[in-house]
Design a protein that fits this description.
Structural class: mainly beta
Radius of gyration: 19 Å
Largest sheet: 4 strands, antiparallel
Distance between the termini: 34 Å
Number of strands: 28
Strand order of the largest sheet: 3-2-1-28
Mean pLDDT: 91
Order of helices and strands: HEEEEEEEEEEEEEEEEEHEEEEEEEEEEE
Oligomer: single chain
Strand content: over 45%
Length: 370
Amino acid sequence: MDRRHFIARLGAALGAASLPTLVHATAQSAPMRVGGGWRLRERDYQVGALQVDWAQGRAAVQFALTVPTLPHAIVPEADGGFLAVATRPGSWLLRVDAEGRLVHRLTMADEGDARTLDGHVIASHDGRWLYTGETDRATGEGWFSVRDARNLRKVAQHRTHGIDPHQILVDAQGKLLVANGGIPRTPSGDKRNLERMNPLLVRIDADSGDKLGEWSLADKRLSPHHIAWNRPVGGDAPTLLGVGLQAEHDEPARRREAPLLAVWDGTQLTIPTRMMAEGYAGDVAAGPNGGFVLTAQRADRIVLWQPHDAGKLMTIGKVQNPCGLWPLDGAPGVAIGGGLGLARWHASEAAAMLRWPDGLSAGNHWAILG
């Protein structure tokens, strides 16, 4: 399939299902810069930035830096650069500026190599501190390190009160929400002894490390990995945390039928819908109407959940191997990293998709850069 037909076909697929209360518009999306990680020509692992021009149908590499292993999370910074973390069991964390210059690099060997990074990093509200989820190589215990944002150096460390920590977010009070995936793993990161899984969502005081609360689902084979805050609509609308679930059941049929989303409202962790999407959420992000968009990675679908219609997952697009999400301004839509290219879905504008630059095999997560 040539490039023009590829874009037309997948753009049409993304736009085939939109919100019934909104009207498709013809406005062209503004150009953007996106940061991500990838493998180039099945050889080099890289992090870098792409210049994306939706109107011209082009995505081009602005800069790229070679890294030792596959990158996972990308976190934008105010200067237009970003932080990047290695995929678990991760050995490095780095900062890149808006021009593609390496500013800081941390390797876990610098800290004795007793732990591995678990793929994500998040900043405190005031920007002074960074929080990284980590796993003790010897015991498998989950930890988070508090790091000086100026130089990535560790200044404190606390347990996550679980195992297999993945994404960490900061709430309105500056406390941490940690998605402890609960999967026992070997030192190389492989899953083992799944009958001993203990997934937990934990709220932690970032200063003392004290556990302020924990929540779990009845089905211990549902692992929380990625989490996102919604964007409430209206003054009395609730702030919700969307939890993307990954099913780890032994039986393929149970994995296929497993739910994709759990929602935490500050007091309870619940499963709002049992609609099936192959039981594996690649990512979750804020979506329209106080809801969440998720990538149903194994079902090759993008789905939308909204609190006013909580029993449903609406398919809003079909993309091969979708994973990373990043909300667009105001959360009426999202940018989506897929197996073949970068997609854009918006509740009131035309959807679009562009092929990745030649030779680029995308990693898990992407982020829009300032």
